Write the structure tokens for this entry.
Amino acid sequence: MREFLDAFHSDELLPILDSISDAVFIDSKDGIALWCNKACYELYKVSPEEIYGKHVADLEKSGVFTPSVACLVMEQKKGVTIVHENKDGKRLLSTGIPIFDSNNHMTKIITTSRDITELVNLQHQLESVQNTLEDFKLLGKFSSDGMVANSHQMFHVLQLAKRLSDVDSTVLITGESGVGKGVIANLLHRNGRRKEKPLIKINCGAIPESLIESELFGYERGAFTGSRAEGKKGLFETAQDGTIFLDEISELPLTLQVKLLQVIQEKEITRVGGVKSIPIDVRIISATNKDLFELVNEKKFRADLYYRLNVVPINIPPLRERYEDIIPLIQHALRECNKKIHANKQIDSNAMAILLKYDWPGNVRELENIVERLVITTKEDIIMPENLPSFIYETTHSNRNKSLEPVTLKDALDKAEQELLSSAYHKHGSTRMIAKSLGISQPSVVRKLRKYGIPAE
């Protein structure tokens, strides 16, 4: 060790340290800069003359080091490694090592710094590729369950559904009619621990109010006129150890909402006409195409039940907001219809362009119905624009005319900003990288993403 310390002042070691690409600093035990090699100028834009004799704490205050690794070594009395940025925004890996004499007294501090910006960028790219591969695996896994998706919005929905499959949290699925709320409920059940048990689906709006209580909770014999002599199990009992899916939950009468709340809280039901409580172990998934919170404000839905059902919400965006899903959905529906009637129909590119411009107010359900209608009613193997329903022509023509209407400068700028942010988000993925690419601060990026409803990292 002594020979090594003496070599600091030799004519052999310093030229060697001066020739390497890593920045090398030598400081005294008290933090006074003694020497640095030529690479220090490349990474820190500082010459030896500018730092010689100065204390590392003063150099830190002046912004040369952010932070000073030597200061950290002096504080901790041991080696320190950190990742930080220089003035140019490059990512540096810096290591400070204390040198001790034979009496275990610190005599000097050696600090080395290396530019790892390219390595970090490659790591981010690798993570992005891995995430994309995971997305494709996720879509491949779920496509067999009837889910077809290609948009980032649906990626997020599927990722959330995947995470929720393994837990028993109560889920509320929201979205317009026809977006696929039932499909997501299927995914949650089939990929969860209850998949071997029943999935019972109930449309709360399709059962008459006079019958819905007995359908849900069952009844004892002689409970009412016309009932079975032996009584009947309700759908909650039928779903025991499995999942119960309450579709159109907003249509549940207020009187039944109270009883459903009791079932969720107490995990037991009582049949109509009965007094015995029956323990229930089911996972509850509900869905609605209405704004339940607004119904709560209007006193048409119980607030306590709303908060019990809305433990984890999943919102499925309408088809008009996930443009990338339209063609895959059309192609999937076309394949299914061709298989069903043993046909080989295809859609002309001009007809496909018209279908892409349509708003699809009925969402995926409307799309599937229209494709099936086209396959059945078109005599030729190629579905042409003239084969499309007239209302699609009229709607797309009306939308095209609307797009030509003048807009305010603010609206145009907002739209341009939203598209730019969306593109940067899909390219970079993180708010830090978006901020760097757009030349704005990270808090500004987070605020603007929230403004336009673009999901942040």
